[in-house]
Amino acid sequence: MFRISNTVVGALNILSLLLGVAAVASSAYIHIRGGSDCQKVLQVPLLVGGIFVVLVSTLGIVGSLYRVNTALYAYLFVTFALIVGLAFFTVFTLFVTNRKVGQQVSGKGYGEYRVADFSHWLQRYVVNNKNWDEVKSCLMDAHVCQNLAINGGRNNDFLIFKHLTTTQAGCCKPPAYCGFIMKNGTFWEVPKEGPAVNNSDCSTWNNREDKLCYDCNSCKGGVLANIRNQWRRLTVFNACVLLVVTAIYALGCYAIKNNRFDSQCNHPKTPFP
């Protein structure tokens, strides 16, 4: 007779097994059909993560539903390692995203960011030349700089920005302190007297769609701000997952006890005469 803990552990692992298979299939689809550079970055993580989930889920299913304690011990060992890893990663994300940054541009509804405002780890990981080329490719593939402004005024005689994300604010327009004149959502005119301040971002800006401010420090700051915001949300998600995995670990421990008890009942020791 199946115990509740065995059934719950088995059901959860069947679900995770299906998710793992979906991840492997997604990686295979990207490999066969191809895709953008941004999509290809996900190919290997999806494959490795999917295979890992499939293997661990199989251990959980065999151990809980088929009463194989050896598999269940291996499953619990991996689960415990996952609990430790999630706890470490949650603390780490809080540590690298603990700075409150971003200067609100008055009346514009968006903030501008500087690379120096973020943790050194984020700067080294994201802003280095190799990773930044991949980030730029993803930004262009995602068309983040399209349809940023709408006509405003009674006669539609001027443009106003829609609500901009941190990435759009940093990458799709020159910084406000440059004093450029907006002609449309992505075309800006340098004043006759030149930029209002002598800053490398002002000279880096280019009206070409494949240039814009993708190489500006403001773009890097905007991307870092977006990563920080996403990681803050990920921290909450990680905390919820940590609770769920801990509960699964506890259920797995009960499942081992159930397996031992059922094994003793099915194979009772013969008493001495």
From TrEMBL:
Primary location group: membrane
GO cellular component terms, A-Z: membrane
Places the protein is found: Membrane
Transmembrane spans: 12-32, 44-66, 72-96, 236-257
Signal peptide positions on this chain: none
Sorted UniProt keywords: Membrane, Transmembrane, Transmembrane helix
Keyword ATP-binding: no
Membrane topology type: Multi-pass membrane protein
Coiled-coil region(s): none
Single Gene Ontology BP annotation: auxin-activated signaling pathway
Protein family: Belongs to the tetraspanin (TM4SF) family.
Protein name: Tetraspanin
